[in-house]
Specification:
The complex is a heterotetramer of chains A (about 250), B (about 290), C (about 425) and D (about 325).
Chain A lengths: L2 E12 L2 E12 L4 E4 L6 H9 L6 E6 L2 E2 L5 H7 L1 E3 L12 H13 L13 H14 L14 H14 L4 E5 L7 H18 L2 E5 L3 H7 L2 E6 L2 E6 L1 H5 L2 H6 L8
Parallel strand pairs in A: 3-8, 3-9, 6-7, 7-8
Antiparallel strand pairs in A: 1-2, 1-4, 4-5, 9-10
Helix pairs in contact in A: 3-4, 3-5, 4-5
Chain B lengths: L2 H32 L6 H18 L4 H22 L9 H23 L15 E4 L2 E4 H23 L1 H11 L1 H6 L4 H23 L9 H16 L4 H21 L4 H15 L9
Antiparallel strand pairs in B: 1-2
Chain C lengths: L1 H21 L13 E7 L6 H20 L8 E7 L4 H13 L4 E4 L3 H7 L3 H4 L2 E4 L5 H10 L5 E3 L5 H11 L7 E7 L2 H17 L4 E8 L7 H8 L5 E4 L3 H13 L2 H4 L2 E4 L5 H12 L7 E4 L10 H14 L5 H20 L4 H8 L3 E4 L2 E5 L6 E2 L3 E6 L9 E7 L2 H4 L7
Parallel strand pairs in C: 1-2, 1-3, 3-4, 4-5, 6-7, 6-8, 8-9, 9-10
Antiparallel strand pairs in C: 10-14, 11-12, 12-13, 14-15
Helix pairs in contact in C: 2-14, 3-4, 7-8, 10-12, 14-15
The chains are: A alpha/beta (about 250), B mainly alpha (about 290), C alpha/beta (about 425), D mainly alpha (about 325).
Chain lengths: ~250, ~290, ~425, ~325
Amino acid sequence: MVALFHAQGVRKTFGEFVAINDVDMMLEKVVLTSIIGPNGAGKTTLINLFTGKLPCDSGRLVFDGTDITGLTPHQRVHLGISRSFQVTNILQQMTVAQNLQLPVLARLGRAGRPFARPDRDPDVRAEVESLLSDIGLAKARDVRAKALPHGDQRLLEIGMAIACRPRLCFLDEPCSGMNPGERAQVQELIRKLTKLRDVTFVIIEHDMDVVFALSDRVIVMHQGKVLTEGKPEAIRNHAGVKEIYLGEEVGD
Amino acid sequence: MTFEALVYQGLIGLSLAMYLWLLAAGLTIAFGVLGVVNFAHGSLYMLGGYFAFTFYLTLQMNFWLSLLLAAVSGGVIGLIMERFFLRFIYHLDLAYQILLTFGFVLIFADAARIFWGGIPLIPPMPEILDSTVSIVGRPFPVYNLFVIFVGIAVSALLWLLLDKTSWGETVRASASDREMASALGVNIPRLFTVVFSFAAMLAALSGALGTPVRAMTPGIGTSVIIDVFIVTVIGGLGNLPGAFVGALIIGLMKAYGVLLFPDADLFMTYLIMALVLLFRPKGLLGGR
Amino acid sequence: MASKSAFNRRQFLKATAGGVALAAPFIQPAQAQDPIKIGAQGVSSGSHADYGRQIQMGARFAAEDINAKGGIMGRKVEVLYRDDELINDVALKNARFFKAQGVNFMVGTDSSGVCLALGPVLPELDLIQVFTHAATEKLTEDLVFKKGIKHIFRGSVPVYQDAILPALVFKDNKDIKRIANLGADYEYGRTSWAMFHTTLKKFRPDVEIVGETWAPFFTADFTPHISALAAKKPDLIFATPWAGEAVLMLRQATTLGVFNDIRVWWQCMGGSVDVLEGISRDVATGKFKDKLWATARYIWNWPNTPENKAFVGSFSERWGRLPNYSAECTYSAIFALKAAAEKVDSVKTADVIKALEGLELSTPAGKRVYRPEDHQAVYNVPAGRVTYNKEVAPIAYLTDLKVFPASDYFRNPPFN
Amino acid sequence: MKSWTALTKAGLQTRLAAAAGAALAVALLIIPLFGDYVIWLTANMLILALFAVGFNLLFSFTGLLSFGQAAFFAVGGYVCALILLAVPSLLLGVVGGVVAAGVVALIIGFLCVRHTEIYFAMLTLAFGMMIHSIIWKWRAVTGGDDGLVGVPRAPLEIPGLLSIDMADLERYYYFVLLLVVLGIFAIWRVVRSSLGLTLQGIRDSESRVTFIGLSVMKYRLIAFTIAGLASGLAGALMVPLGRSASPAIANWTFSAEPVIATMLGGAFTFAGPIVGSFLFYIIKEIVVIFTGYWMMTLGIIVLAMVLGFRGGVVSVIQRQLLPLLERRRNDLGG
């Protein structure tokens, strides 16, 4: 197993509050990793640091051999790191198709073309079509994103994240507010893409069913530190984990 | 620049700063709480001036009373603006709010022409304030000292009002987080009306304070508003102490500028604003 | 030159002939009984609104006067008025509007910038404009004399009288050695100050400039400028901010106690009615210690002629205000156009231009002569000390009038 | 079914737009028949329309409210004037003006695009007024408040190719019409292009666009520069029309005109600013006939507009009229 992404001594503080406390983390290729932990454990902050939404106070981030600590978010995307957000973040005023065209254009370096119609670009079209079928929104192609039901909006955002053809993709609570059907669809999609495109997914999820059904590896965070990590079964029976989740039942 | 000039021009600048401070205070409070940038704030300054003129000279009232009544009348205008117009557009894009208040700028300018005519109006200087005191061996207007005093007094009152009263608490609460405040059971619509008309009062007071030394003309509103924007932005929009600092900077800059770079005073004010925004994007003391 | 402009005109008419045909509602060919239309414009919104108002009053008053006496060549006079907002493009739009309305002549315009923009377009419009306020010498010296734009005339006095007259008034006053400038930071202020101190220095090399400050348009508070100058202990302060700005500047000067130390405050345009109205109370209470001197391009209490008295009397009766210089200049300009038109019994632009060149006309302000070289109306204007006496007038006025023959302070062609 | 109505709606919209466009085109072509004043007014409307469309690319399609567009209008105008006073070549003047405006927009934009919302508006206002005070002060070059006057409406010359005299207002009007149409068409294409998609993406969600790998700053700057070019072209066309340039066109009050026009016609639509620009002039023309208090009247109209029919004229047509027409169609259909 090769390390795709390596975080060394990453630290982030907000005033007095230490959100991320010297975290070291290794993410291996095509190993579907879940990050869990109680609210305020620093899961989302960690992703924000990895993807460049926030700068690290200290520490080093290495992606596939290159140091990305100083890179801007969009530079990291070009290297192959993409993400979705905890709170749905899509282009509300635009159609589903357009939401997917933009990341494709970005990847092809055609987003700045001043006169070319995106919908007339054969490459873009083909790719958008396959994405649409991947996330199962082919019928909603021309619907404005804001008009979509919540579940479909979450799916669309995942679609945008993978439209970047990432090698490493962070999904922040992809299944939040979804009905069982949609959850199944998301899991199905994640598995498929992992297989087909060797995408390495890292998901933050509260729904333990999803976590244990999906993950090859689980990382447990607590108070800005990595509490423990390991195979789902190991975590399921880990005493410390039970403890920090006291009240919140783990698994069933 | 000699020490004498330093002190004397400094005091002149301080009095300029106080007019700006009263204006900026209102603008920034209104922005902080309502999130509205009021282009007509300068027009309220103008109306305050005209009102003071009418009470003091036309109706022969006592000067202090005229100041008070002018401020109150300005508050009433503000109340009407908020209650019957602004209230309906808070949810809209910034541009609509700016446009609405800009509409009021146009209306007030012509209204002034209708009610007070086009010629510059200036009441006589009230006796008590109509003299000079010697500062660094030169005569300094008592009136400017009075303006400085009022400015500082208002600052003190604002501080008491906002930091020491429960009303001030609710204002600050809703300034920082509207949802939270309404969750705490604050009557947001009423609060907005009160705050906006209070802001208007401050603008009108500034204008009223200006009448004996700054003649009122229908166009005065648009000529002051830009300075006020600069002041509030320098200090940080919605930041009251920031507005004070900004007013001091611009006031003193105008006074010393005459001595230091007599050929570039307008340019300097805009330059200062641009520089502040470039290096402190949210203003010197940080804004919303 | 005239022939050239005539040629332009023919070209112009040819070009728009097609348009004219279908543009009946916009351009009516003038028949004998149609009224003679005069387009007037000035600023009647914002801080300087009163100047446009005065132009409007002057023009309407002239029209009423003329119509009462049978009009121009039996044709009634009709005045169209528009606000130019002190903005070039608005003024140009208004001029086009007047043209479309088939006006025969144009008068007015307050701002120098606007008149310089409007002047060069007049040949294209084939319209005469008599400018009745804007004071920049460039209008007559450059556009008319040097560039030969014959459609431009000016019925009011250029900056000469704001700037050169005071030099003449005070050249013999040995007490004045230190002069300072509180300038309006635009062409008018810059030119006036330059003309004033160069002229004064010609007579009085010993005079020294002790201070210069410049205040931008729309300055609400001049105290920094005034105090900066006061620190230099000048004998004379030369101030160019006008209208409302003059009023508040003078009040601010009094609060700073400037008038205890200086000998003279020369206020350009201080003789303007709106300013005098604004400062009346301070004059009445002796705030200026009789040290405030002013001038205007016409003042109602000079010359002391029956004609002027009659004009002032009926004007104040008609409008409840004393006539400002822009009112008198506009009034007289329309009479000049009347005289010229009747002289050649025609309202054709080319004819009237010829008739106006060298025209001599007695007006409320006294005898005006339209110099053929630069189309500038030459007439005498007094300067005076500002005083108040409610027996004489409801507002402050000028006394101790110093009258110099215009020839002394008017610059003359070829303007070198 | 849904898609069918969507289709007909689209069809109806485009057909309606096409019809309106055609009508407008004809009207604009025959304008000179109504005499110089109408030509003059229309030329001004066209120039404001281009100015406003440029502003709207920033406002409605990138989500930036600029209050300093007059600066670029003025740079375009003054540079054009300076060139024309030196060399009598209209083309050179216009091109020079546009380029200069573009460069200035690029520089100022670089400093502004880090900001959004009110701070962006204020920063653009500040830089705009800096340009204004430079124009006011740099008398040797700009003529101070007198401005640059007697600018020749030089002939349109391409050496060896063509030479058209522009002294005649009618000819110049067609020149303005041509360039304004080209300018607006170019921006229309931009809005529909990949770049346009990116800009609208930034408007909808800055962070989302960042995390699909695009530099928000870069594209904001591009939009700002395009808007600057449009303003510059408008200015460069305005100056030879009035044959003068004055500081008024750099003042913030002039920056407000495209804003008002856009709101009047309808923000978040492409045609809004164009319709609004025409209304802006027409309303004022009508108002000044009836009252000298045009400011107050205009103000009341603005108020009524913001409170009454917000979306502006165009979206009123889209939201109120089109549905009616559709219902008619559907009734007929079923």
